Every structure is written in structure tokens, then in C-alpha cells.
């Protein structure tokens, strides 16, 4: 499943790069889907990766916690803050780098899917609009929004690998194994 989500995200990014500036609506739609898909892809990765890890001898100490959380479908927020420390004994840094960038991406995704309308109304002659929603974040989406979402997701996954002790040189190969991204070198 991890490969499938990341293949879909890469295909979406390729397609969005082919759009012209006249396809602004299509670009915004695809960029929004890219943001949602990137965050979801990371969550699926976490679910599968940590489930596999807790069957390995060095990480079996965390099996009860991870299996309980998976069964109870804990939030993504809970997983990213708790699981690395429980399994590896190390926390992700959310104040800088990949951790901060992923937090920002997750916040962006949440603005897309958890927005609420206001109770403001506008009245013009013959028209009354109630409960407007702020969609300015969506209006700001460009091709770069989707490409950045993919980059952030991949770098965040590499950060998980680093916490496990995977070297910087091996991260591209681990990313390939888990998401299908072919190493460039």
C-alpha cells in the first residue's frame, strides 16, 4: 500500500508539471490532492513500517504499544510523537528540518479537510450569503505545492530511517524499498 500511494503521488506530481498556467483550476485541484495524498502516504508508511519493526527482535519491546495503537486507530499526531520514542528511544525533532516541514504539511492538509465555515453573512441587493468559508489557502496552491508535499513526505520518512540508525547513504535505498522512489545515484 505504501508503494501504491507514493506511486499515485508521483504520477500526480508528474501530471501537474505538464499543466500550463492556464490550467489554474486543475493545478489547484491536483495540488490539494497531492497534499492530502502525501500526508496519508506517510501515515500508511508509519502503520506498516512500525508494525513490521515490532516483529523484529530489537523492537519487540514496543509491540504491545504499537499493536494497541493500530487496533485503536490512534491519530497521526499521536503516532509521530510517540512511536519513534517507544520503538527507537529517540524523538523526532519537530522544531526544525524534516519534522517541522512535515508538521507544516499536516497543518496545511488539516486546513483543507477540517475547515469550518464562519457565521458571517453578506447582504447585497437581492442576495444574502450566510456561513462563508475561507478558501484562501486553496486559492494559493500551485504546481510547487504538490512537488513540495512529495519532497516533505519523503524527507520525513528518511528521518524515521535515521532514527532507526540507517545511514545517510542507505536512506535512498530504504526509500526505494518502502516507497518505490528509485535512487538517483
Key words describing this protein structure:
single chain; 185 residues; mainly alpha; two-stranded antiparallel ribbon; 65% helix; 4% strand
Please provide a written account of the structure.
The protein has one domain (2-179). Helix content is 65%, strand content 4%. It has helices at residues 2-18, 24-53, 63-71, 76-88, 97-113, 136-139, 143-164, 171-179, and strands spanning 121-124, 127-130. Strands 1-2 form a two-stranded antiparallel sheet. α1 (2-18) runs antiparallel to α7 (143-164).
How are the SSEs placed, and which strands pair?
Blueprint lengths: L1 H17 L5 H30 L9 H9 L4 H13 L8 H17 L7 E4 L2 E4 L5 H4 L3 H22 L6 H9 L6
Antiparallel strand pairs: 1-2
Helix pairs in contact: 1-2, 1-7, 2-4, 2-5, 2-7, 5-7, 7-8
Largest sheet: 2 strands, antiparallel
Q: Label the structural class.
A: mainly alpha
Enumerate the strands of the largest sheet in spatial order, edge to edge or round the barrel. 1-2
Mean pLDDT: 92
As for the number of domains, it is 1
Helix content: 55-70%
Number of helices: 8
**How much beta, percentage-wise?**
under 5%
Query: Rough shape?
Result: globular
| H/E series | HHHHHEEHHH
Q: Which ranges are low-confidence, i.e. pLDDT below 50, for 5 or more consecutive residues?
A: none
Short description:
The chain is mainly alpha-helical and 185 residues long.
Amino acid at each position: 500500500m505504501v508503494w501504491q500511494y507514493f506511486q499515485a503521488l508521483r504520477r500526480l506530481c508528474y501530471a501537474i508539471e505538464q499543466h500550463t498556467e492556464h490550467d489554474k483550476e486543475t493545478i489547484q485541484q491536483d495540488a490539494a490532492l497531492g497534499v492530502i495524498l502525501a500526508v496519508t502516504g506517510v501515515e500508511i508508511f508509519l502503520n506498516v513500517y512500525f508494525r513490521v519493526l515490532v516483529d523484529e527482535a530489537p523492537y519487540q519491546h514496543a509491540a504491545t504499544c504499537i499493536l494497541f495503537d493500530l487496533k485503536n486507530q490512534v491519530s497521526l499526531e499521536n503516532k509521530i510523537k510517540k512511536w519513534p520514542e517507544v520503538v527507537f528511544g529517540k524523538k523526532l525533532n519537530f522544531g526544525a528540518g524534516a519534522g517541522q516541514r512535515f508538521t507544516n504539511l499536516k497543518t496545511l492538509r488539516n486546513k483543507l479537510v477540517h475547515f469550518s465555515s464562519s457565521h458571517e453573512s453578506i447582504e447585497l441587493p437581492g442576495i444574502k450569503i450566510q456561513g462563508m468559508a475561507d478558501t484562501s489557502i486553496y486559492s494559493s496552491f500551485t504546481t510547487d505545492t504538490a512537488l513540495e508535499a512529495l519532497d516533505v513526505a519523503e524527507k520525513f520518512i528518511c528521518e524515521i530511517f535515521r532514527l532507526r540508525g540507517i545511514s545517510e547513504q542507505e536512506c535512498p535505498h530504504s526509500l526505494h524499498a518502502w516507497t518505490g522512489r528509485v535512487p538517483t545515484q
